[in-house]
Specification:
The complex is a heterodimer of chains A (about 475) and B (about 600). Chain A has about 475 residues and is an alpha/beta fold. Helix content of chain A is about 35%, strand content about 20%. Chain A has an eight-stranded mixed sheet with strand order 9-15-14-16-17-13-18-19, sandwiched between helices. The termini of chain A are far apart. Chain B has about 600 residues and is α+β, with helices and mostly antiparallel strands. In chain B, about 35% of the residues lie in helices and about 25% in strands. In chain B, helix 7 packs parallel to helix 8, helix 11 packs across helix 13 and helix 12 packs antiparallel against helix 13. The N and C termini of chain B lie far apart (about 100 Å). The chains are: A alpha/beta (about 475), B alpha+beta (about 600). At the A-B interface, strand 5, helix 6, helix 7, strand 19 and helix 9 of A face strand 1, helix 1, helix 4 and helix 6 of B. Strand 5 of chain A pairs antiparallel with strand 1 of chain B.
């Protein structure tokens, strides 16, 4: 705290969008927190975005309409934006700036922390290697999440990402880990959607192990820029101070990016692609890179941001730059959704960069990585057979190609498709994969070592035509 | 603390302005505020200096003091660089962790090289000798695989007045004194400072004649890199850029590797820090960490330090080059560096050229890539700096400015293909969209050192792959069955090239790296099958009889069946190819006759 703390001034020199301009105040520092009191007595929080000898620019979190230059009072708090942290945050719902939204008094906090966080020294990071089970087959087997990873869900408007998020919120756990918590940050969610989430959190009992920060669609754009930082400050406290494994869901990063563009334009900055500021990448990184693990500390911070691809365009700056910062992506697909497959996870373009060191014997099961590769290879063959069939017609396909078409259908119905309330263990998911392998032409099971085939490929049963062929081949 | 040379008048993110009372130089390093944050002067106007600050600026107020360092951004060069990890302005991350804990704080000034560490110095020059810049004064065994030569720094020449006796010295100790023709004597020590934005001088630039072998077939055979050249490697996210960089870091036959993690993921650098000590250099049998310097400026670290990081990296690379070593600089990725440039330029209010990038983007890129080269050093040794930079084109669009300008200044271009990556065909280097302009220069080396077959086989294989790419378009329209047999054979052989030669798994114990001899042998086997297949077609053997030969599957698997020391196995395979192609189709012909 500096000498300026508590000093109050009256009068602004300008207002533009979410920005207010004032004459310079001695001692005012970059990124200092301010509080504005409007003529009607209401207050707005704000932060210093730039300061010089003569003037300062303040970004205002909250509605700015009705503000006047003459009568607005500005109080300086003498420190950067902070969030009070403590274990009592668990079970609570806050607005986008960390003020209680659930009608309860403010929680007891142990400490106030700057919401910008600090950079983890790369030498002190622990490489993430522990499996996080979502209970969703497509994710657990093919794009496994590990504790400390940042793995976004790329979706499109109209896809059932809300159901998937809710399912992950309810089912996510790390096998053998008791201290597990969730931090949910709504970034510009429409009110009906936010309401459904809040009700579901309460009804499912998930709320007890989570903290929610809700910035809604009609909340201010400037506030949206600090919501994820509040959420991450709370998550970092739980993870690195309390030793809890925390899963952070940021929903939706696209709204966040739009807000960044809005504030940037109001500041008159030079735009780069599609009007987004040139620092979009660095700004997103300052959020996503807060995921991780630290040597010698028991907790972890895992992040699953939701990114709605505008018009389904994965090359749009927000999904594009998100993809460059995060460690893989889970892509939802409209065609699968139209066929009624839930969750509509597009297997081929989805990827988890950190999975191979976080799965296998002692973590999930010995056959996990080989099974994932084999399933992946088979899905690639399905894709080829389907595109071939659409050109030359199903009748012209070879026997193997027709088998892959059947495999593709079975894959979607017995593996991918899952009830939004069904939590599958990794063992269940793996055995479903093995039942599918019985349908693959035996000669194509090249990703699976013989000992795993002997141990796991189902004997007899309905799915056995491949079996005899396989034995003949070996 | 010295008296402040000025005071801040404006703070806007990483950019601050100060009114200075003392003379300040462009690019001079400054210390800003009470925490003494490190910054650099990037513009001067009257008495107002504009500075970029390499640390978090929250909390700075107008009026805060600014101190001058007296010189531009420089790095310390000396023993102890190998195996260390630095940030973009050469702060030692490993030692910072000891002093500040898990998170990076501000205003910490630790010497880049451990000041208390003793190095065993063995002089090789004698007092009284005439010495010039680049001459060797002595040697320090920096790691078990590398002699660190202590050289007379650039710009110094004269008589060596005295030289330290063999023994253990700190990097700050004086090792000797040089008396120039005029003026005072100059001290030389184990370490020296060098300005990062100024290339270190050398005597003469040399042509490319030797390849920088990477162990990756698609690169060494089809799109080779020479010692001293530069390569750009563009690829959208998920195309395997990072895995490729890690593979190159592991297998490239360079003496020293400088890896610059420039605006990339923290966990990736952690993976390197975790795995490098356990990976063994195939040539020296020593841990790879001993030949590697890591510059880690992750995406969430201050942007100006990211801009500085590639200069910090390349300066260290040049330093080892001057000792006569072949150094490989891997930069992941230069797009993030260019974005740092754009971000600073935007805050300066400069008029942007394309996509918000400043108009000097191309000249900055040129200046960076020009620091690659195979040279005769000031001391008369041969050394090289080779640069491989990953590029992350926005939206995977290869026409964006960073990719396009990189193409202008690099001789090799390895395009990573999203479709190949999605089919998990790694390395996902696209044969159609990649090139190397040094392959002709390297033909003599391959002819003399490995095999005269390399050049002709390489050209023929590329021709087959090119024809197959064209035929695939046709086949998609008319169906493959309508193509003549020769064309169908080309398609099958191209697939065999792809599976049996181009694809190379980083996780395959026998095939993660491939020796030049094995590369040539594998390629000649595949072409041998192609030629014999063409002959067989001439004898009216149907394509399907050829592709059903057992040797085809063996050829596809040969890369993982026979390792670098099992080339004899490939020779046996050649006999099988000959036998089976010769007898191919006989059974069917017998059937047809009877």
């Amino acid at each position: 705290m500096t000498a300026i703390a508590g000093v109050e001034y009256t009068g602004l020199t300008g207002l533009r969008g979410p920005l207010a301009f004032i004459e310079a105040v001695p001692g005012l520092a970059f990124h200092d927190q301010v509080e504005l009191t409007v003529a009607d007595g209401t207050t707005r929080a704000g932060r210093v975005l730039g300061v010089s000898e003569r003037a300062a620019v303040i970004e205002i979190f909250g509605p700015t309409d009705g503000l006047t230059l003459g009568s607005t009072r500005v109080r300086f708090l003498g420190s950067p934006l902070r969030l009070g942290v403590g274990r009592e945050l668990l079970g609570r719902t806050f607005d986008g700036m960390g003020r209680p939204r659930d009608g309860l008094p403010p929680p007891l906090v142990v400490e106030e922390r700057p919401i910008e966080g600090a950079v983890i020294n790369p030498c002190r990071r622990e490489y993430p290697r522990e499996f996080l089970e979502t209970g969703v087959s497509a994710i657990d087997l093919l794009t496994s999440v590990v504790l400390g990873q940042k793995l976004p869900i790329f979706t499109e408007a109209g896809l059932p990402h809300d159901a998937l998020v809710m399912q992950i919120v309810q089912q996510a756990h790390a096998p053998g880990v008791e201290r597990f918590a969730l931090v949910f940050a709504a970034l510009g969610l429409p009110r009906p959607v936010a309401l459904r989430y809040e009700e579901a959190f309460r009804a499912s009992g998930a709320l007890g192990r989570m903290v929610a920060f809700m910035n809604l669609a009609d909340d201010s754009a400037a506030e949206r820029l600090i919501t994820p930082r509040c959420a991450l400050t709370a998550a970092e406290y739980l993870a690195f101070d309390c030793g809890v494994h925390v899963l952070v869901i940021l929903h939706d990063i696209t709204n966040y990016g739009e807000s960044l563009r809005e504030v940037s334009a109001a500041r008159g900055e030079v735009p780069s692609r599609k009007g987004y500021p040139g620092y979009l990448y660095s700004d997103l990184a300052s959020i996503f890179e807060r995921a991780g693990r630290i040597k010698g500390r028991p907790g972890s911070l895992t992040m699953m941001p939701i990114v709605t691809m505008p018009s389904g365009d994965v090359t749009h700056p927000i999904p594009d730059l998100t993809g460059y910062v995060t460690e893989g992506q889970i892509i939802l697909d409209r065609a699968l959704d139209r066929r009624g497959v839930y969750p509509p996870v597009a297997v081929l373009p989805s990827l988890s960069r950190l999975m191979s060191d976080g799965i296998g014997a002692g973590r999930t099961r010995e056959d996990h990585e080989d099974a994932a590769r084999q399933l992946y290879a088979a899905c690639a063959r399905v894709e080829r057979a389907r595109s071939l069939a659409s050109i030359i017609g199903g009748d012209e396909l070879s026997e193997d190609e027709r088998r892959y078409l059947r495999f593709g259908d079975l894959f979607e119905t017995t593996f991918l498709r899952q009830d939004p309330r069904e939590a599958r263990s990794i063992e269940d998911t793996l055995s479903r994969a093995w039942r599918l392998f019985a349908e693959v032409p035996a000669a194509d099971l090249t990703r699976l070592p013989a000992d795993l085939i002997a141990r796991y490929l189902p004997h007899g049963g309905a799915a056995s035509p491949a079996r005899s062929a396989l034995e003949a081949a070996r | 603390m010295t008296a402040p040379a000025g005071h801040l008048i404006e703070i806007s993110g990483a950019l601050v302005r100060a009114r200075c009372t003392a003379p300040v130089g462009l690019n001079e390093v400054v210390y800003v505020g009470d925490d003494r944050l490190v910054g650099e002067v990037i513009a001067l106007e009257g008495d107002v200096a504009t500075m970029q600050v390499y640390e978090e600026t929250a909390g700075l107020s107008p009026g805060a003091p600014v101190e001058l360092s007296g010189g531009p951004l420089s790095v310390t060069l000396g023993p102890g660089l190998l195996g260390a990890a630095f940030d973009g302005i050469q702060r030692p991350l490993d030692r910072l962790a000891l002093s500040q804990g898990d998170f990076l704080g501000c205003g910490q000034h630790l010497a880049p090289l451990a000041p208390d560490r003793l190095w065993e110095f063995r002089p090789t020059a004698a007092a009284g000798a005439a010495v010039h810049a680049g001459d060797e004064l002595g040697v320090v065994r920096e790691t078990d695989s590398l002699d660190h030569r202590i050289l007379v720094p650039p710009g110094i020449a004269g008589t060596l007045v005295d030289i330290a006796a063999p023994g253990a010295y700190r990097t700050s100790d004086r090792l000797g004194r040089v008396q120039p023709a005029s003026g005072a004597t100059v001290d030389v020590g184990l370490a020296q400072r060098w300005r990062v934005r100024v290339p270190r001088p050398f005597r003469q630039r040399l042509h490319a004649t030797t390849p920088l072998l990477t162990g990756q077939r698609v690169l060494d055979t089809f799109f080779p890199l020479s010692c001293g050249s530069a390569a750009g490697m563009p690829g959208g996210f998920g195309t395997g850029k990072t895995v490729m960089q890690h593979e190159l870091c592991r297998w490239a036959r360079a003496d020293v590797i400088v890896f610059v993690g420039c605006g990339e993921r923290g966990n990736e650098l952690t993976e390197m820090l975790w795995k490098l000590p356990d990976l063994v250099d195939p040539r020296s049998g020593r841990p790879l960490a001993e030949r590697t310097i890591l510059v880690a400026n992750t995406s969430n670290m201050p942007v100006p330090a990211r801009e500085a990081s590639i200069y910090t990296g390349v300066t260290m690379a040049e330093y080892y080059r001057d000792m006569g070593y072949h150094v490989l600089l891997l930069a992941d990725s230069t797009s993030r560096w260019a974005e740092a440039l754009r971000e600073i330029s935007g805050r300066l209010g400069e008029i942007p050229a394309e996509e918000g990038y400043p108009s000097y983007l191309s000249s900055r890129l040129a200046a960076f890539y020009e620091r690659a080269g195979r040279v005769v050093t000031l001391g008369g040794r041969e050394g090289s700096v080779t640069i491989i930079s990953a590029i992350s084109p926005a939206g995977g669009d290869l026409t964006e400015p960073v990719t396009r300008h990189t193409q202008r200044f690099t001789g090799c271009f390895w395009t990573l293909d999203k479709r190949l990556a999605e089919a998990r065909g790694f390395p996902a280097v696209s044969v159609e969209d990649s090139y190397s302009m040094v392959s002709a220069d390297l033909e003599p080396w391959w002819r003399d050192e490995v095999s005269p077959d390399w050049a002709p086989h390489r050209r023929e294989a590329l021709t087959v792959l090119e024809e197959a790419a064209r035929l695939r378009h046709t086949a998609r329209l008319v169906g493959e069955d309508s193509l003549p047999d020769r064309q169908r054979l080309v398609l099958r052989v191209a697939e065999l090239f792809e599976e049996g030669f181009l694809r190379q798994s980083a996780y395959d114990a026998k095939d993660a790296s491939c020796s030049p001899a094995r590369q040539v042998r594998l390629l000649s086997l595949l072409l041998d099958f192609y030629h014999r297949g063409l002959d067989a077609l001439g004898r009216s053997v149907p394509v399907r009889a050829l592709t059903a030969l057992p040797v085809v599957a063996a050829l596809a698997r040969a890369k993982s069946t026979f390792g670098d020391d099992e080339i004899a196995g490939l020779d046996r395979l050649a006999i099988q190819i000959a036998d089976q192609c010769a007898s191919a189709g006989k059974a069917e012909m017998v059937e047809a006759v009877s």
